[in-house]
Batch of 3 targets.
Target 1
Amino acid sequence: MTEPVDPARPADHAGGAVHIVIVGAGFAGFETARRLLRHQRSDSDHPVEVTVISPDDFMLYTPLLPDVAGGLLDPRFVAVPLAQALPGAHLVAGRVEEVDLDGRTLEVRNREGAGETVEWDRLVLTPGSVTRLFDIPGLTEHARGLKTTTEALYLRDQLLEQLELACRETDPEIARARRTVVVVGASYAGAELTAQLRALADEVARQRDFDPQDVRFVLLDMADRVMPEVGEKLGDKVLEVLRSRGIDVRLGTTIDRLTAEHAELSDGTTVATRTVAWAAGVAASPLIDSLGLPAEKGRLKVRTDLSVPDHPHVFAAGDAAAVPDVTKDDAITPPTAQHAVRQGKVVARNVLAGIGVGSATEYRHNDLGLVVDLGPRFAVANPVGIHLSGYAAKAVTRAYHLFSLPRGANRMAVAAAYLGDAVYPRPLVSFGLVSDDEASLARSQGIPTSSES
Ligand SMILES: Cc1cc2nc3c(=O)[nH]c(=O)nc-3n(C[C@H](O)[C@H](O)[C@H](O)COP(=O)(O)OP(=O)(O)OC[C@H]3O[C@@H](n4cnc5c(N)ncnc54)[C@H](O)[C@@H]3O)c2cc1C
């Protein structure tokens, strides 16, 4: 006899519960679900059923992905299990492919390709973003992003394997290519990734007894500054530190063409490499485009209460939504976790207001600044406008992440890893579990690429 499956539409829906479906379990979706479930447990007069649809069974704490790529953290430490963290939610594992706004249904496809229709009374769209791509020959085939644990693990293993192969390589040109890493994007994600991979490579050099500067890092950005998000003074400091670690930072430069063996740069040079990481910004999830609704910079337009214009039962938040920034004229909030979490809270409140619980509010948040961990002994942070760098920023950065991780067991694991890092050498372990294809932008993030369309 087959076991009954967790129904996509809860059985007691007919009993009056409002069915709220949340698409995506990242910062915004997770927080929305958490708040709605808190209401579910405490208010039986206004019953709700909460369904969360996500391709993964965890909420990913993306800001620590560079630490995973650098071999400092285990991927499980930054993955918060949904079943434990969201008790009472109906979890549907799959990717939403279509939304019928009038019929109030959506279509989900699971990993095995099977489809399922899910009905909703209220819909919360929080599918986040994917790596932003450009029309560069060879990019989707040969570059790898940093938005998923698959990609972070791939980059870690790829660097370790290439350095290992380089040690046995007899052709000096090929050995040099294996020891060269190109990272595109010098805002916080790309800079953190480069710093962490540099630290990993330094440890390999120490343990395998070769000169760390034999491993070459090239960091590119079209902009004329690194990390414009932290301001000019801290950005200059970051540039100085990256260059002092032997990282070849080239501003106003990008990749023109990529092959499996080299990158042709816009400054006219060619860099032989086997490892290219692409962290040049994000674009809203492809699901947003499929809705056919008004968008701004590719993100779904919402009102200040995060509802979608002309669709009062549909809400959106996080990287996928163009949320008006009421603290600034004519701006939308940047795609950061800081905003996504707070928007999740407001969505939950306003969904509940729509069913007679409490009052609705607009989204308003003054940016608190950024924390950016740049590997051993260095970080920069600008909490509430105070500019910090070095050890002070490192302490603030790590404390911030430990505080923000939404589960005690994850916090403990990350804290133990940081402690271990202060005492022991970084572990050099490459499991090789992620294939080149699995880590491709199309497979790991579900980005439709031209070869698929
Ligand atoms: C390397 C890196 C470092 C970062 N560091 C920081 C930082 O230090 N501080 C900061 O504030 N921000 C940081 N960010 C940005 C931050 O991660 C994002 O702004 C944040 O994750 C956005 O939250 P979200 O809920 O909108 O989307 P996400 O957290 O990306 O979640 C989206 C969810 O939707 C799911 N999904 C996608 N498509 C579908 C679909 N079709 N159907 C169902 N589910 C779907 C995804 O699997 C995921 O679960 C960083 C990002 C990266 C990549």
Target 2
Amino acid sequence: MTKIIWMTDPHFQNDGTIRGLNPRTRLKAAIDHMNAHHADADFMVLSGDLVGDDIAGDYRMLAEYLAQSRIPVYPMVGNNDDRQGFRAQLSLPPTAMADFIQYRIDTPEAVFLCLDTHMVGSHAGQFCQARLDWLRGNLTDKPTYVFMHHPPLALHLPKQDEIKLADDAAFLDLICNEGQVKYLFIGHVHRPTCGTVRGIPFATLGAISFQAPAPQPAWDWDSFTPAAEAPHYGVLYVEHGDVTLQYTQFCPYETGIES
Ligand SMILES: [Fe+2]
């Protein structure tokens, strides 16, 4: 069995708040909860949008917070990340690509691929030929589970569907043709959803930081107000090809709210 803690979108800042929330308080609460209740997990995946605007300072302090984890941490990039700043402070496994923050984690029963869907200068996602080629080369005969920041389909969520993975067709063509990919675990949308894409199941996750509201009442970025919902992380079990995902609240909504 492989047990994984899945967290996403901490939007960590070394100072100040984001949308009225102290992201340091939230990340500490998540790590403390994980250490207290899930120190038996094999590893934790943090699926992107790690920092705010102070790239060097945010990544430096984020690394200190993540060092408190009792289990190995695999960080990924999202639209708000910076590959150079990320690499300066966070370590990657030896399977990582040279130019992209994309890598493979092997366990006895499965392969876990952490993909880089970052597009420089955009909040939408990208999966270029180099990343596709790497993915093709890392699809083996073992069951494969994919973590990625941007969803490769529209999720019927306001505004966020405009910043999904832009070149989703080539990605989906590849994973559907090969057949090993059993599940997609997706960040970015700050809200739990699940479904299938071309028959492959997927799940998204609420953020460690602020939560996106439900699609109705309709909202846009000008009217955006985070939902007053508590954050959660995912507890994933993969055993004999079966997958379960427990959405796990780790603190009350009020934790870290400053305005
Ligand atoms: Fe985010």
Target 3
Amino acid sequence: MILQAAPQLRIARFRGEIDAAISAVLGGDAYILGAPVEAFEAAFASYAGCAHAVGVSSGTEALALALRALGVGAGDEVILPALSFAGSAQAVLQCGASPRFVDVDPRSRCIDPAAAADAVTVRTAAIMPVHLFGYPAEMPALIALADRHGLAIVEDCAQAHGATLVGRRLGSFGHAAAFSFYPTKNLGCIGDGGAVTTNDARLAERLRSLRNYGFAGSERISREPGFNARLDTLQAAILSALLPFCDDGNRERRALAARYRVALADCLGLGLPPEAEGAVHHQFAVTHPDRDGLMRCLAEAGIGSAVHYEPGLHRHPAFAWGATEPLPVTDRLAATLLSLPIQPEVATLAVDRVAAALRRFCTTLR
Ligand SMILES: Cc1ncc(COP(=O)(O)O)c(C=O)c1O
């Protein structure tokens, strides 16, 4: 069976580095925050092209804390694309604000800047572009929109570690950016983990306080309502060990995406991801009008695939009031997108077999 994703194979590939990182923590004296978290934060800030990185307990927490630290709260609206993982919208609820879902651009599958502009109201406090599948949202148009209305931008970079737009790292465009280190991510740990990056020193300080009970520095006095939302020390050590390989993994993903593109170029009815230089292909998601049939056919050939994301967030009961307009592009993509294996440890030996099965499906009269 070819799995759609298999973090255990990545762990096996880097088992030596991971074991050494765990041993170092076991032999040290910091189990909460401490030197391993500080070292990872410094390394990740430099990798992400930002002055600061603050390690937190998950990607969802990273988004929620970033919004809170920017002053977003009750009564505010946050504009975000309806095509994303539920965590993007849960983060908005967590900080007391309301999600306002807008449609995505059919090519980039990321937030449509014109739809975002139409959704701005007097309550709008922030825009949350999601760099879906590791492809960049249109940041210049979104920054112009945010500047026009005095809005904050929090980039959801959960799927975009190391991705660039015009040579600049995603995550360095907004006021803050949130990363997830969920095990399947391009940089993933062995459990939950996340980080917020920013170039604003005061925002970074506020984030360090919010993730640690509202404490300031080493003082154990709560200055404001805070959380226990720190990046786990063991995960930080593992992430430091894996970070040096992240760009290699992204290069391998680019090469795999290029192989898929060539092999699938003339498949009838099949839609391919956009060709975005700097994308890191967290997913290689194709579209097909009979997506469920294609998924079944791949499964019969022993090939795993996955649906990201159906339904759109505006159709989840928890946020069903979050859209005021129909979102036809999101609905169409939600019904037709299928993510193929792209994780290097899975796909390097499997691309040709997956592509052949897809080609068979697309040329069989049905
Ligand atoms: C786009 C997106 N946003 C947010 C999240 C939430 O991250 P986490 O699972 O670490 O809370 C994820 C991933 O899981 C994601 O893919």
